[in-house]
Amino acid sequence: MTRFAVLLRGVNVGKGNKVPMAEFRALLEGLGHTGVQTLLNSGNAVFTARRGGADVLAHEIAAAVQARCGVVTPVIVKLAAEFAAIVAGNPIVPPEADHSRFLVAFAADPHALQALTALEPLLQPGERLAITTHAAYLHCTGGLLQSQAGAALHGKAGRGLTTRNWATTLKLAALLAPGAGAA
Questions:
Q1: Residue 20: domain span
Q2: What is the DSSP letter of 75?
Q3: I need a labelling partner for 180 at 20 to 30 A (CA). Which of 12, 25, 46, 125 fits?
Q4: Mean pLDDT over residues 43-65, rounded?
Q5: What is the Cα–Cα distance from 79 to 96, expressed in whole angstroms?
Q6: Rounded CA gap, 104 and 129, in Å?
Q7: Of 16, 21, 26, 25, nearest to 72 (Cα)?
Q8: Whole-angstrom distance, CA of residue 38 vs CA of residue 56
Q9: pLDDT digits (tens, 9 = 90+) for 133-144
Q10: Are residues 93 and 114 in the same domain?
Q11: Is residue 68 scored above 80 in pLDDT?
């Protein structure tokens, strides 16, 4: 049995794309997953699966979210070990006070991350962008709402990706850690 994180893009933001977390948890359990835990109200969960790789699970979960909630959205699934590597591989560890201003971009297809080089001209003084083989990291020192690169990442440039701030990323990593609720 393998532990995974699942991240939905753009749910429960504004009036559209509503996926209640209790329903999301039940949906994952209905697919046969165990040890399901959701985090916050933004489409984050961890679970244990008996079978399937990340791509297969992402397809199954996307279909179930559409069927049950009527929401079509990118679904990114990461193995616990891959998620841990994304956290450990962060080349720009922000100070704790900036955890909410630091975004991690997750992609199902790592090649999609390379397109984020187009954000570099949008970086404002003090902002930093790092793109690795498994994730992209954006430090919006002036705040997310003031960042042109952050806005682009949440818009067309980030289509097919999803982002989480560093605080949420660390919380998900803790839920995925060995012995942290796996069933």
A1: 2-82+172-176
A2: E
A3: 12
A4: 93
A5: 26
A6: 10
A7: 16
A8: 20
A9: 999 999 999 998
A10: yes
A11: yes
